[in-house]
Automatic annotation (TrEMBL):
Catalysed transformations (reactions): Couples ATP hydrolysis with the unwinding of duplex DNA by translocating in the 3'-5' direction
Signal peptide range in chain numbering: none
Lineage: Eukaryota, Metazoa, Spiralia, Lophotrochozoa, Mollusca
InterPro entries: DEAD/DEAH_box_helicase_dom, Helicase_ATP-bd, P-loop_NTPase
E.C. number(s) listed in UniProt: 5.6.2.4
Stated name of the protein: DNA 3'-5' helicase
GO biological process: double-strand break repair via homologous recombination
Keywords: DNA-binding, Isomerase
SMART domains in the cross-refs: DEXDc
Similarity annotation: Belongs to the helicase family. RecQ subfamily.
Cellular compartments per GO CC: chromosome; cytoplasm
Residue stretches making up the Helicase ATP-binding domain: 37-202
Molecular function GO terms recorded: 3'-5' DNA helicase activity; ATP binding; DNA binding; four-way junction helicase activity
Length: 381
């Protein structure tokens, strides 16, 4: 018999009160689709495709409390994350009730206190000692797959373990699965449910059309000029305007396809801005323009400074333009970004970091526009 769902406002408020006390947060109430997701997880697997800024992580953060309110029994949540930065942010928030499955020996695990297990899929899947550890837990378990679109984006050759997460079905047959993502197409949701071994999951999603985002499509030179000249058309306009407006320029992301074009954009910025590349000393903390790609991500200090500066209010940070591959997005606080420029059609239309009012500018040639049209139409079905 299916467990009843929390219906009373009093019960829901009790869950939130316990969570706030544990985490130091100040959540006043749940959004409708957060509550719908939690209620659904009491009965079945759930796929929740909710906009950036909606509060997807709060769903799994409340799960142990919600489960206890429903059943009177404790529960633990295994959270699979793609990036260290997300794990670090969540563990800082959840503090002593969280445990990282990685370098920490399992002997340090406190079963009476821990509510959340965080890990990369590679640290869990195919690891007999971890499987044994998970099976030894007597409490009910949920598996939350955060940024679930990575199963589709990275599951071929880059990080193939993402497509083997369903092995956990055999390790903990009792566990219910929660898949979270900001924007996934209908076909993408179908593929995610298959790769996670979900049978008849509850699908909770909103339209990818967002009133806080305006989409502007501008044509840049196509076949008649070189690729460098085509990119110059994008970069020179942006950095020329930045040189004039300086601190009054809006915080902007420029997404490029590949590290080479990120580096080229940075060279153009140096040529146009000169000494105006920095406010004061010539170091990353004082930079108006930075570049971000997978190699930068290996240098924790540089990455930390970029993430810190882009998360600040514009009047508190010199940073105005980040030239990046898709490496920048997940785990970054982009609430102050107001302009996003795709220097060509984005390779993945399902990745979207935009949460506040934002203009998304797509610089494309006619040939590229035709190639991507079908994909854009599918994402907006």
């Amino acid at each position: 018999m299916a467990a009843p769902c929390i219906q009373s406002k009093m019960a829901s408020d009790m869950v939130i009160q316990k969570y706030n006390f544990m985490s130091g947060q100040n959540i006043s109430n749940l959004r409708p689709l957060q509550q719908k997701s939690l209620d659904g997880l009491m009965r079945q697997d759930v796929v929740a495709s909710l906009p950036t800024g909606y509060g997807k992580s709060l769903i799994y953060e409340l799960l142990p409390f919600w489960h206890f309110e429903e059943t009177g029994k404790p529960a633990i949540v295994l959270v699979l994350e793609p990036l260290n930065v997300i794990i670090e942010q969540q563990m800082q928030k959840l503090k002593e009730v969280s445990f990282f499955i990685g370098n920490s020996p399992h002997s340090e695990f406190d079963k009476d206190k821990t509510m959340f297990l965080f890990a990369h899929p590679e640290a869990v899947i195919g690891k007999p000692e971890v499987y044994k550890f998970l099976q030894s837990q007597s409490t009910y378990m949920y598996v939350a797959v955060d940024e679930a679109h990575c199963i589709l984006d990275w599951g071929h050759e880059f990080r193939p373990i993402f497509r083997d997460i369903k092995q956990l079905r055999a390790v903990r047959p009792d566990a219910r699965f929660l898949a979270l993502s900001a924007t996934v197409s209908i076909n993408g949701i179908s593929d995610i449910t298959k790769f996670l071994g979900m049978e008849n999951p509850q699908i909770i999603k909103t339209s990818p059309l967002r009133s806080n985002i305006s989409l502007i499509v501008l044509h840049r030179p196509g076949r008649k000029v070189s690729t460098h000249a085509s990119y110059d058309y994008v970069f020179e306009n942006i950095f020329g305007d930045l040189k004039k407006r300086k601190e009054n320029y809006p915080v902007t992301l420029i997404y490029c396809v590949g590290i080479n074009w990120v580096g080229y954009g940075y060279e153009v910025a140096q040529r146009i801005l000169g000494d105006d590349m920095f406010v004061g000393n010539r170091d990353v903390e004082n930079a108006r323009v930075v570049m971000f790609h997978s190699s930068v991500g290996r240098y924790d200090k540089t990455k930390e400074i970029i993430y810190k500066n882009i998360s600040k209010r514009p009047d508190e940070s010199p940073l105005r333009v980040v030239i990046s591959t898709i490496a920048l997005g997940m785990g970054a606080d982009l609430r102050h970004v107001t302009t996003v420029v795709h220097a060509g059609p984005p390779q993945n239309i399902e990745a979207s970091p935009y949460s506040n009012n934002c203009s998304c500018m797509r610089m494309t040639s006619g040939d590229q526009a035709h190639k991507k049209k079908a994909a854009w139409e599918e994402a907006n079905e």
